[in-house]
Write a structure and sequence with these properties.
The protein is α/β, with parallel strands linked by helices. 45% of the residues lie in helices and 12% in strands. It has helices at residues 18-29, 42-52, 68-82, 107-135, 153-156, 162-185, 202-208, 211-218, 229-240, 272-275, and strands at 9-12, 33-38, 58-62, 87-90, 145-149, 190-196, 252-255. The chain has a seven-stranded parallel β-sheet with strand order 3-2-1-4-5-6-7, sandwiched between helices. Helix 1 (18-29) crosses helix 9, helix 3 (68-82) packs parallel to helix 4 and helix 4 packs parallel to helix 6. It is globular and about 55 Å long.
Length: 280
Amino acid sequence: MDLGLADRVVWITGASGGIGRALADAFAAEGARLLLTGGARVDRAEEHARLRGWGDRALVRAADVTDEAALEVAAAAARERFGRLDAVVVNAGIWPPEDVPLHEMSVERLRRVLDVDLLGALLTARAFLAALAADGPHADGGGATITFVGSTAGRFGERDHVEYAAAKAGLRGVTSSLKNEIARLDPEGRVNLVEPGWVATEMAAGTLADRDTVRRVLSTAARRRVATPGDVAAAAVWLASPRAARHVTGEAITLAGGMEGRRLWRDDEIDPEAAVPDEP
């Protein structure tokens, strides 16, 4: 199926990480042009774009999502290069791997995670919507889209990572609010949220190396496997499609293999070696 994404301009934040690179690959495969932004590791996004041979169809810029000026500069650069912005996947985020209960958690950690994962998402959406307000809806009527990458922590909570759960839960309220705001700028505009569970990325690799942890996190999931970055990217591409998902807005799609709040599998019914994908 032609998803109608050819030549649309898609902004991907957190493009240096595993999910970010998978998002870039998936949208490029649909013929989209890309604005790829990242923080301290933005050179990895540059290298990825070079190896893929995207040339002038990909613009890579350094932009910390907590820096509104840097985000606005990146958006302006894409509009100058490509003429406009059509979609954004708000993917940048951090997850401190250390388990720390709230009463022992430093205020610095609280602020840093909320700044990146929630405020950063709002600032990214703000820059995108400002560009949409300036340029107006796409002439083809396909509709602008915002897709936030959240987490099942925002739905189920996550013990000893309450700051992360709070930030990701906040994206549900953001999605429900902005679906109404974007429609005033673009009648066909849409805003949605993807909530992955555990994903086999570099950020999670250390935790997933603990096979007991793998058994624990999969014991409530119908599908006894960890998601790949490509799984997340496929959902984001579908949500951004002006053809496949044109009437989907304000939705939170959980991408976690049927995770529930009750235990479904005994330890001996989960094979950690087979559950974690080889790809990063």
